[in-house]
């Protein structure tokens, strides 16, 4: 009798795969035990497969089948980045359907949360549970200002010779600086088979899509019945923390966690506390 192959629960070691659907070659990674509903991860603005914190992915993959993927035109995926969040949600639906899943759980961060909301409003039967972090509702106040905030922090980071995410995701006090450096370090743990960087054109297209999302009419989230966990830092400059409270009010029965002295990347700063909470929520 042969021993079963060990289950890979390390995101740094998960191989990159390709799936063609709807004329797009999506690239993705999967890890954790197969069987049951997978947890599909929706990532943030300008992010590729290499931008997920392995401390969070690995924690969930210990008990769940985890799938991360590149949207159309992002990283090593083919095609051009869509000009709207709605189109990104349509692409996510195409990708999940092509994998053969009729129902999934979602783990999202920032722009990924925008996409997930549009997806679940249009296809409520597809989603069982959602984790929405560092995000806000369609038409949320000041979401459209993300363009100005992003470019300003990119300039500041360039002057300081560091990764823009250290400014965009974390407070600039001693605690936030240390958390930012640690986060960037964790993103470099994968040594081989790293993803292609986001293109400048694709990044600019995503920014415009977010701006339109922020300036559009609100979606009706009162109809959502999916158990939802919402989390953020208490000083999010990209998607203001008040919008996490707004989501909590709009989605009945949702749970809300706000981490102190932290920004947009609050779940990454508090990964040791948040990862087991998210894993428990998704595993109930």
Automatic annotation (TrEMBL):
It comes from the Bacteria. Keywords: Hydrolase. Residues 39-268 form the AB hydrolase-1 domain. InterPro entries: AB_hydrolase, AB_hydrolase_1, AB_hydrolase_fold. The keyword NAD does not apply. One of its GO terms (molecular function) is hydrolase activity. Pfam families: Abhydrolase_1. PANTHER family: AB HYDROLASE-1 DOMAIN-CONTAINING PROTEIN, HYDROLASE, ALPHA/BETA FOLD FAMILY PROTEIN. This is Alpha/beta hydrolase.
